[in-house]
Amino acid sequence: MSNSPKWFQFNHNKKNNNVNKFNSYYIRPGISTNVNKSNTIGRRHFSITSPQRLVSEELTKFISEKNLNPVFIYEDLSDKTVKSRVLNDTRGLSGIYLILNKVTFDYYIGSASTGRFHARFSNHLFNFHGSKVVKNAVKKHGISSFAFIVLELFPEIVDKENNKKLLDLEDFYLKSLLPNYNILTEAGSSFGYKHNETTRLNMKANYSEERRLAIGSLNKGKSFSPSTIEAMKKSALNRIKPIYSDKSIQNMKKNSKAILVYNMDYTVYGEFPSITEASKSLGCSQKTITRALQTPKKLLRRRWIIKYV
Question: Domain GIY-YIG: where (predicted)?
Fold first, then answer.
């Protein structure tokens, strides 16, 4: 018997009694299940006819301690079928995700705009185009030591108007859970240093009962039924994509703001015609650069200072 990616949802009874918290699963329609509820803290069994699937003990304990209510959970990331499952399960969806190191219990939290969960999953854990901290941890501990968790779905198709709402939701999780794998500890600010053991212990101590209950309160009543999730996917996938003429594309390029990048001593590192070009050269995402530009200090990965020209 081996661990496999799961798709389930805990119920929203946020009592401290673990039996109440872990006795409900969220299953795809048409899949017969047999949940063993006798051992709610240890290994929680999840069977889909055959073979039987289960959630690891360490992951169960982590979710319980943090009072989380995840929508999707994927373990055994070395399994070649995981990527396709993440792609199919999250297609057209947006929200907040968590990457957990099940050996050290360090974790990373991020947000994914509509249809981008799979890209975040792949870039962080396989392509290594995301967090360098996560990349180094995966290389050290191996991909099988990690779990990918969708913490919460964002109910709207993400656009320029509501993107701030998604970042606010991410901010809440960042400030509540204090993820020490994050380069950004706040959606829009730069962080980027390794925590020593004292810092880790302080962060753990600071995860107060107040924060724990706040997480539970945030998730309370936010369960989406399978039909609702499918409707969200369909709505996102049926969006009419704008078709731009060559002239429009050129105008957009002309309107792109140039980026000036400084070293920490304020010597010029380089100038780029757009955020897109800067991201390619600096090896970080456009999202990371945009966030840094929105902060007072304009710090990018604690290596550069960036400004619009």
Answer: 92-183
Give the tens place of pLDDT for each residue, 187-241.
444 333 344 445 555 555 555 555 666 665 655 555 667 777 777 677 666 665 5
Q: Which amino acid is at 140?
A: K
Three-state DSSP at 171 gives helix
Side-chain-facing half-sphere of 88: CA atoms under 13 Å: 10
- What does pTM read for this prediction? 0.56
> What sections of 67-162 are H helices per DSSP?
82-90, 117-122, 132-141
Q: What is the CA radius of gyration of the chain?
A: 20
Its CATH class, for the domain covering 18-237, is alpha beta
Question: What is the amino acid identity at position 307?
Answer: K
Answer whether 309's CB lies under 8 Å from 260's CB: yes
Kind and range of the H or E run holding 34 = none
User: What is the domain partition of the chain in residue ranges?
Assistant: 18-237, 246-308
Nearest to 70 by CA among 33, 104, 44, 37: 44
Q: Which amino acid is at 79?
A: D
Structure tokens at 61: 């304990």
Q: How far apart are CA 160 and CA 47, in angstroms?
A: 41
CATH architecture of 246-308: Orthogonal Bundle (1.10)
